[in-house]
Amino acid sequence: ASAPASAKTNKSYSSVAAKPATTTTSSSAAKKNGKRSRKPFPRQVASAARQFTAAPEDSDPGFQYLYLPSRHKETLPRLRAKLAVLKINNWRVLDIHFPARHVVALLVHNDYASDLRALFAAAGITPLSDFDPLDPKHLDDPRLVSLTTDELVQKALSVHQGRLQRALKFIRSIPIRHAVAADFCARAWIS
User: For 61, which DSSP code?
Assistant: First the structure.
């Protein structure tokens, strides 16, 4: 009984060399692993191509918040879905928050701000040009009634800085997060 078992395990060199080698392509290997290779989306291709092109000379390297009127607070996924209906590229909107009652703030790159304004104008939406997030009148907390005007200004500043720091935590791309943080520091919004 031991002789046939050893005969099966001892294969000759010629029998092993005669078999064709099996090759796997990347797509067949991906199918074995349960993953399918996928064609990149056009925005992914455009993003990758931007890495290897020179920045336009008229480029403004900063970031800004656009403030828009809002009827009520809404969850961020629903708000982003409504922005998508307006044909706004959600990948270019880095942060969304509600700095005051009936106001929504969108953080975008300065180069995208003019495109965003044009999309809002086409939809009949007028951004709030005179909104000041540091104005103490936006503090809707009855516990703050006893504070002096200077204390209210300081509280509004600390609330605004807290929002900005929270916004930085939610920006996924590390290089963009650093660029936004550097811009916030240059404007003395955060320290």
Answer: -
Are 180 and 170 contacting, i.e. CB atoms less than 8 angstroms apart? no
Cβ-contact 125, 83 below 8 angstroms: no
Residue environment code for 4-32, b if the CB has 16+ CB neighbours within 10 A, otherwise e: eeeeeeeeeeeeeeeeeeeeeeeeeeeee
What separation, in Å, do the N-terminal and C-terminal C-alpha atoms of the chain show?
Answer: 81
Give the separation between CA 87 and CA 80, rounded to whole angstroms: 11
Which of 114, 123, 94, 117 lies closest to 106, judged by CA?
94
Pairwise CA distance, residues 124 & 118, whole Å: 10
User: Does the pLDDT at position 53 exceed 90?
Assistant: no
Helix residue spans in 19-131 (DSSP H): 26-32, 42-50, 76-85, 110-122
Q: Supply 191's token pair.
A: 């320290």
Residue 105 has pLDDT above 90, yes or no: yes
Helix (DSSP H) and strand (DSSP E) numbers for the chain: 8, 3
CA distance 172 to 76: 16
Q: Which helix (H) or strand (E) holds 154?
A: helix 149-170
For residue 58, the model assigns a pLDDT of: 65
Strand bridging mode 93-100 / 63-69: unpaired
* Residue 182 host element (H or E): helix 174-186
The amino acid sitting at 173 is: S
Mean pLDDT calculated for residue range 83-94? 92
